Amino acid sequence: MKTRRHSPPLPLRPRAGPAQGFTLVELLASMGIIVFVLSIAILAIGPALRGAATRDGARRMRAALDASRVKAIQQRRAVRFEAQQATDDGGNLKVPEQWGVTPNAGDPTYEWHALPEFVTVDLKKGSGDWQSDVTAFSITFGSDASVKAGSVSGSPLTDAELLSPITVRLYTVREAPADEVDKGTCFIQITPLTGVFESFGFQEAATADLPNKTSK
Fold first, then answer.
1. N or C, fewer C-beta in 10 Å, the chain?
2. pTM of the model as a whole
């Protein structure tokens, strides 16, 4: 006679109780972690944004210089590039600092292109000292692409100065420690005899050419 086997009863699942929320300690700990992560992110983003503004300013200035040089070659005439610190309606320099560039100053249809705010522009002629009080400068390209004339804050470049490289330094000091200012610096060097440009950053620059290492 066959006997029936009875399978054991399945264990009963416990009833789910009401959902439990976070305790005050857990909430405070989570908020502390969020604040800590955000502070690190802000510290990391700040230098990147300042460096991006400086690189963008250098790129726009280099583009305007290139446009002037190309126009001089194509049109077989002298073309003047100008860079100038912006002023308000009363002729006072704007705060925050801002520069504008134009690739064909003096032409009937020329227009200014603004660089990012807070970007400082310094200039050095040859192996001389950096000029940190520059408010404007111009470069005039001839039909052979070489630099035929120039001026710094209204003073014409001499023939001797046109034989040596002209270097432009761009950087921002907006809410930045000295070390970050140096690491965000960009340079544009112009060789007047050939009209050739060279762009480089703080890695390729001499230590003495960095803003916070410059003798003032």
1. N
2. 0.77
